[in-house]
What we know:
The chain is α+β, with helices and mostly antiparallel strands. The protein has 15 helices and 14 strands. Helices cover 49% and strands 16% of the residues.
Amino acid sequence: MPDSESAQLAASPTPEPQPEERSVTFSWGIVMVKTKRLLHFLDDLARYRIFGDIGWVYLAITIVAGSVMLWLMLDQDYILLTGSLALRCAVGAAPAAECVANHITPVSGPPLQAYLLLPGLNPYIPFIYGIVGIVIAVVVHEGTHGVIARRLGMAVKSTGVLFFLIIPIGAFVEIDEKLILQSKFRNSGRIMAGGPGSNIVVALIALGLLLVIIGGLVPAQFNGVQVQQILSPSPAYDLFSHGQLSSGDLIVAVNQTTVRSVSNLSQFMSTTKPNESLQISVDHGGQIRNYNIILGENPNNKAIGFIGIGESFSQSDLVGIKNTYASNFFKDPLLYLVVPGIYSQANSVVPFSNQLAVLYSSPSLGGAWYPVALTLFWIWFINVNLAFFNAIPLYPLDGGQALLNFFSHFGRKAVESRAKLLTTIISIAMLILILSFLFLPRILGLLPT
């Protein structure tokens, strides 16, 4: 015997068979191809009861995601307004002159387009990987809206595909908004939550697969500390300028003390002083060469000596980085939002960052591990960001539409006008909060000292 939702689906109005309707519109480079051909596919999926039940899970996920997003934006504003000068200088929220006057290096914040999940506009999202992530995110988001709507007996007008010129950038499902507004919140809430909820599920699946790949990586085998970056001016740069040291060389000993990790080298250097003589043993292409240098001043502590090596790694460091990334989700989930190739810290914590990737190999995937890892990362990153943003109670985002429907049925009778007023007030407050999240660091950075 069919359940109530199946009966509702069967009882929903079905249009008479008609020839395939298709329309193509073009505006500002965006091509919209609208079709009803995919409606049958949505109906086929909607026959499975799980899409009605999982809507409750998606609703809970969306409420939590929206709450977390609000907390993050409020927390950032609070930290910027009450944080130390060093912190504000580190995020570009303090005047550069004030930072320099206090011997703190100022850092400029990311450009505004960095907050847009649009490959080609966002300078940090690789174009091809970004397109893959966007297409998957939008198809899953819109498709889940449609499937849950059909499962709950609501008509879907059409489906379609969006292109930027000839590049696919997503999909859409057109649902009758009046029917959603008139339906009970237990139904409309699940429909609206289907998009963000399914994006988070896809994001977690992609991240899980990524962590499996990272857990199986094998670090490069070498004894010593591999030099990745040589700073200028410095004693190391003097060696570099004479062809005696280059990126990829190994520091195997200092003053005949064996060096096996970066911590070994750092510990030894903490006992030295500027202007001291130091013998450095370098493995260059399998040949060990010894050089005598005069140490400079460490810019972070002028009381100790300085070689001039920036990024550097040992085999034990690589093992630690890989293991931490593969198993630290519950301890430090923000680690997985560090984008490879953007921030310098990515080169010491993300195994598939530009600098670290060449130091790992995969026995199972071979050289394909790197593009697969990047693909999974951008699917995770774009899906989770799209989900959290859409969960904000700001109309016409999914969170805002669910809020409007909730207020409309907050009582025995629909109170549409009051619901719209409350939703508008909350949406304006959310918009102000988003603008403060985007512009407060820049405003603080422009204020006179």
